[in-house]
Design goal:
Order of helices and strands: HHHHHHHH
Distance between the termini: 43 Å
Number of strands: 0
Structural class: mainly alpha
Radius of gyration: 21 Å
Shape: elongated
Number of helices: 8
Helix content: 55-70%
Strand content: under 5%
Length: 177
């Protein structure tokens, strides 16, 4: 897994929650939710770049010459709709704001395909394009794995909160004080 994703996962400790205070569990859950939003947004950024690069690669493999940028830009809505992924394990967005994206995580995508290079896709050699797609595929796999791990941790945190309310270890009245 990518080191930045390991760092993100480390921000939400895993393990036995029985001895952890309810406030700490809630804090961990809030942290995990913010991180999950950031990782999900990063995943979408990667997928968009994969769609654009993959479409150009397929275009070339069909025997066509590299597309000119105006053609590619005019086809973006079609490309993004055509290559949309299935629903997966996604969760409904809690709000419509763009999540804060960890700068180090954003840099992982830009290290592979800087925006300026994406804008000059027509100037890339076929082998460069293939390499970029492979690198983004690997990163997307790592990001998806981190996202699944965050979902597992969120589920465990929520289950512990629910368990405490069901058993009487926590009460709604304590929230009102």
């Amino acid at each position: 897994m990518h080191p930045e994703l390991e760092r993100v996962l480390g921000a939400v400790p895993d393990g036995d929650l029985a001895d952890v205070s309810l406030n700490d569990i809630r804090d961990r859950r809030a942290t995990a939710q913010l991180l999950e939003e950031s990782v999900s947004y990063l995943r979408r950024i990667i997928q968009v770049r994969l769609d654009i690069l993959g479409t150009e690669l397929a275009h070339r493999r069909s025997g066509d010459s590299p597309a000119d940028m105006s053609e590619l830009v005019s086809r973006l809505p079609e490309i993004l709709a055509e290559h949309s992924r299935g629903p997966g394990f996604g969760q409904a967005p809690r709000d419509l704001r763009v999540p804060d994206l960890d700068a180090a995580l954003a840099a992982t995508v830009d290290d592979i395909v800087p925006t300026a290079q994406l804008a000059q896709i027509d100037q890339l050699a076929d082998d460069e394009l293939t390499s970029l797609v492979d690198q983004l595929d690997t990163l997307e796999t790592d990001v998806s794995a981190a996202r699944r791990t965050l979902h597992t941790r969120l589920d465990a945190l929520q289950a512990e909160i629910t368990r405490r309310y069901r058993t009487g270890e926590a009460s709604v009245d304590s929230l009102l004080q």
